[in-house]
Fold this protein.
Amino acid sequence: MEGKDLENQFKNVDKLMGKGKYLDAIKILKEISVDKDTEAEADVLSKLSQAYYGLEGVKTNNAIKYLIDSLNVRKKLNQPEILALEMMNLAYLQDEAGEGEAASSTLKEALEVATALGDQNLTLSMKCAMADMLSENKAKEEESLEMYQSIMNEAEKIGDWENYFEACVARIKIFRDREDIFKANSEAEENLRKAESILDSLKTKKDKESFRDIISYLYDVSIDLAMESEDIPRAMELAKKFKGEE
């Protein structure tokens, strides 16, 4: 199967997974016939990994197994960009399965691939993933905070706002979990001002909508902080600002 037929099958699979019908998606994927060591085979294996993750999480080895199989094909096909992204996904699965060392090793390899590509945005995404895993260890929390700050500094220089605000929200959440509400609020307010300034500078509706998606988690965590402080007027003000009502 190839071309339009394969594309239509993938669309069908995506719709089924979107409805939580993972077994149906798996059945279709396993019936798809593709040549070995092709991009189509890698795509089927990758989607099988997604479907099994939706069905079972990491309770079994299926999601990890199929993603590794996909990665092996990507390596043969020399697809470094997709390879790096799938390795990052694999690292998250391994980490969730309690395979911390394997996850760390996979991420380091992914970072090497992204760095070799010279893709700054992809490299920062890998660094964000590494900082996420560091932050899970209380003993390495300070190291993760420093790494997130470094990511923000690098991301701001190249206008990579997706990684900038992802790292920013991660820092705020760490401070909130520490019950350092002053620091959490301070970082939130500073970056809300930055987000609003960037939003005001954008010209088209499409650009504004895309940027709102990027900063949505910053608004979510800022509204949560206001609610936790019982500052209902501030929470309502932020909700209105995010919707563009102010």
